[in-house]
Amino acid sequence: MAVLLSGFLVAVDEEGAIVGSVCLEPLGGDALLRSLAVALHLRATGLGTSLLQAIEREARARPYASLWLLTTSAQRFFEYHGYSTVDRTNVPGAVRETTQFMRLCPSTAVCMKKRIA
Known about the structure:
A 7-stranded mixed β-sheet has the order 1-2-3-4-5-7-6. The chain is built from 4 helices and 7 strands, in the order ββββαβαβααβ. The two termini are 27 Å apart. A hairpin with a 2-residue loop joins strand 1 (2-5) and strand 2. It has a single domain (2-115), classed as 3-Layer(aba) Sandwich (Aminopeptidase), CATH 3.40.630. The protein is an alpha+beta fold. It has helices at 47-61, 75-80, 93-96, 99-104, and strands at residues 2-5, 8-12, 18-27, 30-38, 66-71, 84-85, 110-115. 26% of the residues lie in helices and 36% in strands.
């Protein structure tokens, strides 16, 4: 079961424990995809893909043109789902000014983008 909470999509198991999550941070005409996470015991089960597809549907329902993200470990996963690498020097100001970009993710994190509109 998944529940959308003001930009957050949370997957819970039968007991109500959170087993996955993802978030959209609005950036005007685009959004930052944040914190796609799946519990270790449920990785490679399709839950991450399900969460990603659900949050992309939510993003398309809003007038976002593109989704942006930073990743240190899931570049291949996102490439498989249509995201492409963007040089950090070519990132729009709205993305560069996020806390995720400026402080939370290391400079070695890969920046990626997917057009959804």
